[in-house]
Design goal:
The chain has 2 helices and 22 strands. The protein is an alpha+beta fold. The protein folds into 2 domains: about 110 residues, no CATH class; about 140 residues, no CATH class. The strands form 10 sheets. A 3-stranded antiparallel beta sheet has the order 10-9-13, with no helix packed on it. A hairpin with a 5-residue loop joins strand 11 and strand 12. Helix 1 runs antiparallel to helix 2. The longest helix has about 35 residues. It starts with a helix and ends with a helix.
Length: about 260
């Protein structure tokens, strides 16, 4: 069987994954806090028919040899943790992170998950939670008689209470960062989990060394650039078509070979 059949097939499979990643990016172009991904490729094993540097005469050697590759495969999907566009909403619990860092939320299992999504709400008890009802960690409770909520760039949460002139401090937002945030394990719903690749979370307050500040009344949008993703989609489509031509050409060569007569 011609090697080119399997080589082209591996290229088609790889480009299908590439297209999957690109369409996920486009599907989340308006998802707050979403970080785009890119498929990374590597070539497969090589059949070495002649070693580079093989001697041909006592004082001469082969300069390059004969090495034929066997195709390609996807080896990773890199997540870009760059800052997304900031959108002003003037909602008191839309709190965007500018710079490095993740919010912490408490899962029903008791685990801590991490997110860049910056849209928060309060429940009937005044506890701050995300759109899926997961509590911010550490917990912050807004008094029921609060008339105004204020969040400083350093994450200090204060409120104005009806009938009082002085503001009251009710909590402090805490962020975490990772040595390798691209190594976090995505679990959907804008949430990530710690993994051996990401390293342990490094906690701190907004504005501390290595951590970004927070901004009230602003949402961090997706960092997906539609034009870039459309170009990537076109490239993936053309690469898929080119590999399919390789399969067709190999099939035509086999047809010609099968049609030979003595």
């Amino acid at each position: 069987m011609l090697r080119s059949l399997w080589t082209s097939a591996s290229g088609m499979i790889a480009q299908q994954t590439n297209l999957d990643v690109t369409t996920i990016n486009l599907a989340n172009v308006n998802t707050t806090g979403f970080k785009r991904k890119r498929a990374d490729f590597a070539d497969l094993l090589y059949q070495i028919n002649r070693e580079p540097g093989a001697p041909v005469e006592p004082e001469s050697m082969v300069p390059t040899g004969v090495q034929v590759g066997l195709g390609t495969r996807v080896v990773g999907t890199t997540r870009y943790m760059t800052q997304g566009n900031l959108q002003v909403t003037d909602q008191p619990l839309d709190i965007a992170i500018e710079g490095d860092g993740f919010y912490q939320v408490l899962l029903p299992s008791g685990e801590i998950a991490y997110t860049r999504a910056s849209k928060w709400s309060v429940d009937s008890e005044g506890q701050i939670l995300n759109v899926d009802g997961l509590l911010m960690e550490p917990a912050i409770t807004i008094p029921e008689d609060a008339t105004e909520i204020m969040v400083s760039p350093e994450g200090l949460v204060t409120v104005k209470i009806a009938g009082q002139d002085e503001t009251e401090e009710v909590g402090q937002i805490e962020l975490v960062r990772f040595v390798n945030p691209g190594g976090l394990r995505a679990m959907g719903k804008n949430l990530f989990l710690e993994s051996p690749a990401s390293g342990a979370p490094i906690p701190g307050f907004p504005g501390d060394e290595g951590l970004g500040q927070v901004h009230q009344g602003i949402l961090e949008m997706s960092n997906v650039q539609v034009v870039d993703e459309m170009v990537a989609m076109i490239i993936a489509q053309r690469a898929y078509e080119a590999n399919s031509k390789g399969v067709q050409t190999a099939d035509e060569l086999l047809r010609i070979a099968n049609g030979l007569k003595r």
